[in-house]
């Protein structure tokens, strides 16, 4: 596409100066930048079968098992073979449905897991899916956490311990969709958590940390 556009614009008798400069110099910089940041993603190309646009082939899945093994994720290939066979049947059947074909990848996998009789039918595939879907496609979540952290760790509250800040952020981020009423009901139903809230363990821990700091 780019070579064709470049040839077209530069073949004009008087191409706009901005366009001419872009295709003569800047486009190479842009392409180099994109290639630089896309190269690290090439190692994940073995997972392309997971879009389920086509029934998966065992050879492709086997390559993923090898890749994950090198990362410390152990997949039972015997169990996985049977599970891939079931997934293949499911994909062949569902891809005839336009509604299924139009779903996002994670939604397709959710459908498959929901249809399965038990976790034994997809235990190894679940490990693969958990690895793949843990890879964030953007940094919005990270930026959100940084924003929450800055709102808590202010000049007036700069003595917050890392553990306390972690706890606050955990509640804010993971329970953000829970109303006050629901959160109250959740607390009342969790006796263990209520016990920790009312205990003095947090103060004893703080005193211990203070003593350790003084000794240092």
TrEMBL record:
Residues 112-175 form the HAT C-terminal dimerisation domain. This is HAT C-terminal dimerisation domain-containing protein. Pfam families: Dimer_Tnp_hAT. InterPro entries: HATC_C_dom, RNaseH-like_sf. GO terms for molecular function: protein dimerization activity. It comes from Pogonophryne albipinna.
């Amino acid at each position: 596409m780019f070579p064709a556009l470049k040839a077209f614009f530069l073949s004009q008798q008087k191409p706009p100066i901005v366009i001419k400069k872009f295709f003569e110099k800047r486009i190479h910089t842009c392409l180099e930048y994109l290639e630089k940041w896309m190269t690290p993603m090439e190692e994940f190309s073995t997972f392309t079968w997971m879009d389920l646009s086509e029934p998966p082939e065992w050879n492709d899945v086997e390559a993923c098992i090898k890749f994950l093994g090198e990362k410390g994720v152990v997949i039972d290939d015997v169990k996985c073979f049977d599970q891939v066979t079931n997934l293949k049947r499911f994909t062949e059947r569902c891809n005839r449905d336009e509604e299924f074909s139009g779903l996002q990848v994670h939604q397709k996998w959710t459908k498959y897991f929901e249809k399965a009789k038990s976790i034994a039918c997809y235990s190894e595939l679940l490990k693969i899916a958990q690895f793949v879907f843990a890879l964030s496609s953007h940094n919005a979540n990270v930026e959100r956490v940084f924003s929450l952290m800055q709102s808590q760790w202010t000049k007036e509250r700069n003595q917050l311990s890392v553990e306390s800040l972690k706890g606050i952020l955990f509640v804010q981020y993971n329970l953000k969709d829970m109303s006050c009423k629901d959160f109250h009901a959740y607390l009342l139903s969790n006796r263990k958590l209520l016990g920790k809230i009312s205990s003095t363990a947090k103060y004893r821990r703080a005193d211990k940390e203070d003593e350790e700091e003084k000794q240092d």
